[in-house]
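REVIEWER CHECKLIST
Item 1: Sequence provided? yes
Item 2: Single chain? yes
Item 3: Sequence as submitted:
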Amino acid sequence: MHHVQTAPTRVSAYISPATLAEVLTLVQADPSARVIAGGTDLLVELDRGLHRDASMLIDLGQIAGLSEIAETATHVRIGAGVTHNQIMASALCQKVALPLAQACAEIGSPQLRNRATVAGNIVTASPANDTISALIALDASVELTSLRGVRVLPVGDFITGFRATEKAADEIVTAVLVPPMPVSSRGIFVKLGLRKAQAISVVHLAMVVDLGPDETVRSARLALGSVAATVLCVDAFADALVGSSLTEETISAAAVAAVNAATPIDDLRATAEYRSDQIAVMVRRGLQALAADTAAATLPSEPPLLWAQDFDGRFRTRAAVPQIGVDDEISATVNGQTVTNAGAVGITLLDWLHDEVGLTGVKEGCAEGECGACTVHLDGAAVMSCLVPAARAHGAQITTVEGLASPDALHVVQEAFVTCDAVQCGFCTPGLLMAGAMLLEEYSQPSVEQVRSGLAGNLCRCTGYYAIHAALQKAAVQKDAAPKEEAR
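Item 4: Structure as written out by the authors:
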């Protein structure tokens, strides 16, 4: 049976505790409860009928510290609720954990990265998950917490097999601990996908080398993903490099070592032979970039995050939420009006807004964060509403396409879509408008590349992107020319 024919798993309760102690008590008392931070993987799995025993969602979103990036004497502490966009926006991570920032930039789209977390990427434990190779190359560890205490495991030891980990039933991941790269080290993340955005890796890798004063390699780490059941740490890579300079000869030897260590599979994305060929190319190019000290150039300096100006990447905007059952009501401010409805538990924000609140401008195209048709603004950030639990909306500020215009005039992006004939069949248009409006909130004059990147999470099945991109450029000009008291 195809997964779209399988009945979804509907949990019967949702809770967002105020303290970590409350979470740990709930997890110990009910092993069938599922802990979420972003929930972008878990919600798709529930919709596909997995986790049949799941009884409750325990949301970590309101716990102080879990959405923070902090620098300690020994490592960068990345809380369990830290999103990929937070990592991308962190000057600290860009400086001392560049491969991780680069990996985060390659995941999904801006809307998805506003919810998806680094800790969640590790817990899912798929060998295609991009941040895992970066974390292994950086020698990062996972902090696991339960009422029994705290333990720390290297990321490579935490993941034991395909989608399998060492996490006990009563434990949750509370942080990822990343040792900062010293100034003598250089690192890079390299990915091969079948398209520029929203691509699952065909191959991904990360490498870190430490160089002596004479440019001789003192240590080296390479992690390869999408080539085996788990992300591989290639010991022979270091053997080929340590004690030598990054010459073409040693770079070629390291590439051969990487190819020999991999055991690629054949699947829909690529053949094993193609993967092996590309590993050699990717390792060679990565090491050449490290030798030239140009690795940082692959990370965009001002990538669109689709955040409002006053948003800092954290969704802690409300009080803790007591347990909500299927018949309990939630209240949210939607398009400036207070909306109170039941039926929010066990479904997504997309379904609640569309079916319970009646806002049909929020469209379902894929229900797995691939198309962007369901994009809304949640507490100051653009998100895929199909990947947000509906109960998360309790106490939140939400804007849908119905609330984009003022009572007297269309939003400047809507006007530009009309002028530039950017509306085709119209199904994708609400999501594009919401992403575009937030992009202009973030950058009043986005570059062509920022427009493309900002809309990378929105698919137009009519394939008319030229007019859409032109509309955003026109809207930026009109917005900038509008009198300040009228500008949105």
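Item 5: Key structural point noted by reviewer: The mean pLDDT is 94.
Item 6: Recommendation: ____
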